[in-house]
Amino acid sequence: MTRRHRSEASQGEHAAAAANHGSHSCPCLPFPDLSRERRQEFVKTAHRLAEEGRVHVRNVRRDVMEAVKKAKLPEDENKRLEKEIQAATDKNSATEPAWIMPSII
Asked: Is the entire prediction scored with pTM above 0.70?
């Protein structure tokens, strides 16, 4: 809570401050469980963001591969760099993390 005049603080902030009894920990607030629909929305959003990340990695790979080709390096050096770039791409565009699983729906 930021410092401001006591009259400006909301009732929730007053309740949170009273629950803390002067300690610096955050109060525990009860939140209802997520509905099935809301969990499905979160999973869809996570999948969409993961796909956007993979697309970005592929776009960066394409740009770097073009730069390597334009550099006119010796053929063996060119092939070595292409393999390194592909390995980095594969590593960073792997399948979705384990926490994005249908089992949480």
From this structure: no
